[in-house]
Design a protein that fits this description.
By secondary structure, the protein is an alpha/beta fold. It has a single domain, classed as Rossmann fold (3-Layer(aba) Sandwich), CATH 3.40.50. It is about 25% helix and about 35% strand. It is globular and about 45 Å long. It starts with a strand and ends in a 20-residue tail after the last strand. About 35% of the residues are buried. Bound molecules: adenosine-5'-triphosphate (ATP) and magnesium ion. Adenosine-5'-triphosphate binds next to helix 1.
């Protein structure tokens, strides 16, 4: 179980404060497939980085199975990340999709993971067939292996395969929706999309 409470992330530009996250709270149960949706610059990557222990917030709390990760020592945090999480950057797939065995490497990465997989725009630079293949693999990790999967994306179609959808806008949660009957990856629409600056 992941409990996120009142997360803020503030970037200061001189005297101006920019809230990349502004009071974000939610729970994620074990074995959920969570999709974090939002426009470009809405705070998705910042949120994923903080709940996975990659980045520190300006304030708030992130507990994994009751354990506050924001106050762990560097060494403890490293151990938490190594033993409990996998973080997939989208550039990873770029590299892999150029060679053979692109899924073999992901399988290797996830083989030792007991708990949570974090993915930031895992299919943004892939074509539809490869993108669907990746999402099918992630659903398999969730359903067959019992991992908690947390995916950040702009692609609203992907929300249909989630058990929970968290919608961000301007650093704030605008909607949390539970799906009792998630769609299968083959049945969702597919609209390629990229942020202008990314
Ligand atoms: N290191 C940084 N310094 C200053 N501002 C930042 C920094 N990182 C992010 N921001 C700002 O915080 C906000 C949220 O950024 P974030 O990257 O989390 O959004 P995002 O939803 O992942 O965007 P995208 O869809 O483009 O990937 C944006 O306004 C961004 O410009
Ligand atoms: Mg991002």
């Amino acid at each position: 179980m992941i409990q996120v409470r009142d997360l803020t992330k503030i970037y200061e530009f001189g005297r101006h404060k920019h809230y990349a996250l502004n009071g974000v709270s939610f729970d994620i149960k074990d074995k959920e497939f969570v999709v974090i949706l939002g426009e470009c610059g809405s705070g998705k990557t910042t949120l994923l980085n903080i709940i996975s222990g990659l980045e520190k917030p300006s304030g708030g709390s992130v507990k994994h199975d009751g354990q506050e990760i924001l106050t762990l020592s560097d060494e403890e945090l490293l151990k938490f990340r190594r033993d409990k999480t996998v973080y997939v950057f989208y550039t990873y797939f770029k590299r892999e999709s150029e060679g053979d065995g692109k899924y073999a490497e992901l399988a290797k990465m996830t083989a030792k993971v007991p708990k949570t997989i974090f993915c930031d725009e895992p299919t943004e630079i892939l074509d539809e067939a490869k993108g669907r293949h990746i999402f099918k693999y992630l659903v398999k990790l969730q359903k067959k292996r019992g991992l908690t999967v947390i995916v950040v994306t702009h692609n609203p179609n992907v929300a249909d395969i989630a058990t929970k959808v968290i919608k961000l806008n301007n650093g704030e949660i605008v909607e949390i929706k539970e799906n009792k009957n998630p769609a299968s990856v083959d049945d969702i629409g597919w609209t390629p999309f990229k942020c202008a600056d990314g």
